[in-house]
Design a protein that fits this description.
Layout lengths: L2 H13 L8 H14 L3 E5 L2 H11 L7 E5 L5 H8 L3 E5 L21 E7 L8 H10 L3 E5 L7 E2 L2 E2 L6 E5 L12 E5 L2 H11 L26 H34 L3 E2 L14 E5 L10 H14 L4 E2 L10 H5 L25 H8 L1 E4 L11 H16 L1 H7 L18
Parallel strand pairs: 2-3, 2-4, 4-5, 5-8
Antiparallel strand pairs: 1-9, 6-7, 8-9, 10-11, 11-13, 12-13
Helix pairs in contact: 1-7, 2-7, 3-4, 3-6, 7-11
The protein binds pyridoxal-5'-phosphate.
C-alpha cells in the first residue's frame, strides 16, 4: 500500500463517516472510475459478485431465463444469473485466448436465452465484436464480467465499455484492488436506476432527500464501505502504472518461454491489451515427445518450479460446469432454478468443453495471489525466468526426480473425479 492509501484512509477516520451511499469517497470513486472508463454511470458495491448480480437484475433477467457464459471463469460468472433465478449455459473457450469462443455461442442459444456474460479472463478482453454481433442478432443483453480486466483495452476502448453493462471486482487478488469490493458500470440510465435499487433494499435513494424506506423492487445490501472506497480511489490512481508493470513483466517471461520447448506464453491478439491479472503458460509435453498424462506433467513441472522459488500455481483446474453445483443441480433446493416451470433441461456434461479441459489440464499460472506478476520488479521476474529455463533445460531429470504425492495435491485436477 502507498502513502496515498494512508492519506485517504486517514481522511475517512478523521471524518467519522464510515458508510453511506453518498459518503464522500464512495461518491468520488464512482465519478472517478466512470471518468477513467469514459462511461456515464458507476455504482460502488461490496463485491464483484454483487456488481455482477446487479447487472443481471438490471437487465431484467429472471426465473426460466438462460444466460450464456464461459466454461472457463470464476464461479460468480455463472452464479450471478442464478441469484435472479436464471440458468447458466456454458460455452467452450478459444484455446489461444482462453476466452469464450464466439463460434460456439450460437449453438447454445435457445428461446429462453436473454443475455451473454462475456468474461475477460485473466485480464485479456474477449472477442467483443463477434460476441456483440451475436447479441444483436438474437436481441440479447451483453454483460461484461470485467472482474479481472480493469484497464485492459479492446480496439482502443476500455473493458467495461464494450457491452451494455459491466461488473468489476476489487478483491485483494486484482490489479485494481481494495481488499474487497466491486463496481457496476453502464451508459444506460434505466439499467443504472434499476441496479441502484438492487444495491439498497429496493429503495430509490436520492442524495439530499430523506430516506423513505420504501422497497420498489427486491433489493439487497450491497453498499461499499467508505474505507474501501478510500483505498480504491488511491489504487485507481496507480492502476495504469500497475498494468504497465504487468505488461513489462509479461514481456520478460514471454521472451524466456519463447526460447524453450514444451511451454508457451499466453497469447494477446494485436487489437487489444492484456493486463496479466494472471499469467497462464501453456504446457506442451507432446512437443517434447513426453508420454506422461497432461496433469502428471503439469504437476511435476509445478513442483519443480516451486522448488526453484517460482510462485507457480494452479487456478481453476476444471470447467465451471463440472462443479458439483451443476452436476447435482440442487441449487436453492428443490432443484431451483433448473426446476422452474418452462425451464429447458440443461445438461452440464464436462466433455462438451474439450478446450477448457485441455487448457486446465495442461497449463500453470506463474505468479501466485501473494506474489502476482503485476506487483513484481523486473529483477524478480528475471529470476523466475532463469528458474524456468533451468527446469525446462533439465526436464528429463526433473520428470525423473519429482515425486507426486499420492493424494491429488492440487485439488480436483481430474474432472472425472467429480462425478
Ligand atoms: C471473473 C470473475 N468474476 C467475478 C468475480 C467475483 O468478484 P468478487 O470476488 O469480488 O465477488 C471474480 C473474482 O475473483 C472473478 O475473477
Amino acid at each position: 500500500m502507498t502513502s496515498k492509501d494512508r492519506e485517504y484512509v486517514n481522511q475517512v477516520l478523521d471524518s467519522g463517516i464510515l458508510a453511506g451511499a453518498f459518503a464522500p469517497h464512495v461518491k468520488a470513486l464512482q465519478e472517478e472510475f466512470a471518468d477513467y472508463l469514459g462511461i456515464k454511470y458507476c455504482i460502488a458495491v461490496n463485491s464483484g459478485t454483487a456488481a455482477l448480480h446487479m447487472a443481471v437484475a438490471a437487465a431484467g433477467i429472471g426465473p426460466g431465463d438462460e444466460v450464456i457464459t464461459s466454461a472457463f471463469s470464476f464461479l460468480a460468472s455463472a452464479t450471478a444469473p442464478m441469484h435472479q433465478g436464471a440458468i447458466p449455459v456454458f460455452v467452450d473457450i478459444d484455446p489461444r485466448t482462453y476466452n469464450m469462443d464466439p463460434a460456439k455461442i450460437e449453438e447454445k442459444i435457445s428461446d429462453n436465452t436473454r443475455a451473454i456474460i462475456a468474461v475477460h479472463i485473466q485480464g485479456l478482453p474477449a472477442d467483443m465484436d463477434e460476441i456483440r454481433a451475436i447479441a444483436e442478432k438474437y436481441d440479447l443483453i451483453l454483460i461484461e464480467d470485467a472482474a479481472q480486466a480493469a484497464g485492459a483495452e479492446y480496439k482502443g476502448k476500455k473493458a467495461g465499455t464494450l457491452g451494455d453493462i459491466a461488473a468489476f471486482s476489487l478483491n485483494q487478488t486484482k490489479n485494481f484492488q481494495a481488499g474487497e469490493g466491486g463496481l457496476f458500470v453502464t451508459d444506460d440510465k434505466e439499467y443504472w436506476l434499476r441496479a441502484d435499487m438492487v444495491r439498497m433494499f429496493g429503495e430509490q435513494v436520492r442524495e439530499k432527500e430523506r430516506r423513505s424506506y420504501v422497497a420498489h423492487t427486491l433489493g439487497w445490501n450491497y453498499r461499499m464501505p467508505e474505507l474501501t472506497a478510500a483505498i480504491a480511489r488511491a489504487q485507481l490512481e496507480r492502476l495504469d502504472e500497475i498494468n504497465e508493470n504487468a505488461r513489462r513483466n509479461a514481456r520478460i517471461l514471454n521472451a524466456v518461454l519463447e526460447e524453450l520447448d514444451g511451454i508457451e506464453p499466453p497469447y494477446c491478439p494485436p487489437d487489444r491489451t492484456h493486463i496479466y491479472h494472471k499469467y497462464r503458460a501453456r504446457l506442451r509435453p507432446e512437443a517434447l515427445g513426453i508420454k506422461e498424462k497432461d496433469t502428471v506433467f503439469r504437476d511435476k513441472v509445478l513442483l519443480a518450479l516451486q522448488a526453484e522459488g517460482v510462485p507457480a500455481v494452479l487456478w481453476q483446474t476444471f470447467p465451471l460446469p463440472a462443479n458439483p453445483l451443476f452436476q447435482k443441480k440442487e441449487g436453492f433446493g428443490k432443484g431451483f432454478p433448473w426446476s422452474f416451470p418452462g425451464a429447458r433441461d440443461i445438461r452440464y456434461d464436462p466433455s462438451e468443453y474439450p478446450e477448457t479441459v485441455k487448457l486446465l489440464n495442461s497449463s500453470i499460472v506463474i505468479g501466485s495471489e501473494r506474489y502476482p506478476i503485476f506487483a513484481q520488479s523486473a529483477e524478480t521476474v528475471e529470476a523466475w525466468g532463469e528458474a524456468i529455463r533451468k527446469v525446462f533445460r533439465n526436464l528429463d531429470e526433473v520428470l525423473e526426480a519429482v515425486e507426486l504425492p499420492e493424494e491429488a495435491a492440487f485439488g480436483l485436477g481430474e474432472i472425472t473425479s467429480l462425478r
